[in-house]
Amino acid sequence: AYRQAAFKEHVGGFFDKIKDEPYAYVRRETAIKRFLHGAKRQGYFLILTTNSFCDFATFLMEACFGADWRSLFGIVVSNAHKPAFFHSKADLVGVDVEAMVETPLGPAETAASGHHARGSVHALERDLAQHMALKRVLYFGDHVHGDVFPLEGHPTWFAAAVVEELFTNEDVEN
After folding, report:
1. Could you tell me if 122 and 144 are in contact, meaning their C-beta atoms sit under 8 angstroms apart?
2. Which residues of 43-74 are buried (b: 16+ CB within 10 A; e: fewer)?
3. Could you tell me where the DSSP H helices lie in 75-159?
4. What is the pLDDT of residue 65?
């Protein structure tokens, strides 16, 4: 069974291979980075939501987009428990990005920016509404049933589906 500490401990056959040779599995994405900057200029608020724990998500995002990857997103939510993230009412918790651990949010803290974990889209929208006039959210997902369909009922959220199966082997080689 998967343990949260597996990435940090460099064990399990999956994480250790990716950590040892990240660019055998991940590629630097300058075109997508430009796209994200363009979406921000067009007024979209970008949210990254992943079921991965903060340490693994950070590792992959740094490999893809560089050390400044967090600047691409208004909010990052790791360990999101999708698709339940879209249906529950759970509050978000904070993430200490130096120690790579989840931390409780203080009573006056909200998820207006930064890196958070768990929670729900309802808690996120509530916290964002208190701090900004949210018009359009651009949300990326890689699972149609877990990421894209649950956005129904959230009219200001727009989904961009990332579907690797549409790529050919030739696309991957280039």
Report:
1. no
2. ebbbbbbbbebbbbbbbbbebbbeeebbebbb
3. 121-129
4. 93
Q: What does the alpha-carbon distance between residue 36 and residue 3 come to, in Å, rounded to a whole number?
A: 32
pLDDT at residue 163, rounded to an integer: 61
Q: How far apart are CA 131 and CA 118, in angstroms?
A: 20
Contact 77, 67 (CB under 8 A): no
pLDDT digits (tens, 9 = 90+) for 63-107: 999 999 999 988 899 999 988 888 899 989 988 888 888 888 765
User: In 3D, which of 160, 131, 163 has the Cα closest to residue 42?
Assistant: 160
Identify residue 162 by its one-letter amino acid code: V
| C-alpha pair distances (Å), 7 with each of 13, 59, 63, 68, 76 | 10, 10, 15, 21, 19
Q: Which pLDDT belongs to residue 69? A: 93
